[in-house]
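Input.
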Amino acid sequence: MIHRMSEAAPIPCDRFLVHYAEIGTKGGNRRMFEDRLRGNLETALRGLGIRRVARESGRIAMTPGPRTDAREVLSRLALLPGVAWAAPARVVEPDLESIRRAVVEMAREHPGTTFRISTRRTDKRFPHDSLEVNREVGAAVVAATGRKVSLTAAEVKSSGPTSSGTGGRGRAACRWA
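Output.
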């Protein structure tokens, strides 16, 4: 699934998260396949101002430059073999309030009537477990937008916190797709 938005809306982000499918199960050859995909991403996105493409925690994180056209990045990613899904993300401080604010802001920017929060903690030192983050952030989105939670047929999904794209500097990435 590649992130979709209305044509008029800008796509603010400071990371792109790219998840891959079958190469994650390649065992001893996994790194080779991940490196190949990373190289293919760099080639496919050449000229779009992507400053960094790095393997991180079972996915690839890309850092856009100030003039990177997010729609063009997502359009090219949709055509690249090996990409299961991709979405723009924002890096926030790794605390529940910062994550809650960022996800509520993203929810307000995107159309939809139902949503789902799915947390994956790659840094287990984060003091809240995934279910607690899901409940707290989901409640904040409901209160701010009036949207309904749908765990099985959500129109849009958000995930966070992860440490993807942060190089271990104590930040979290949140995405809305």
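Residues 1-6, 163-170 have pLDDT under 50 and may be disordered.
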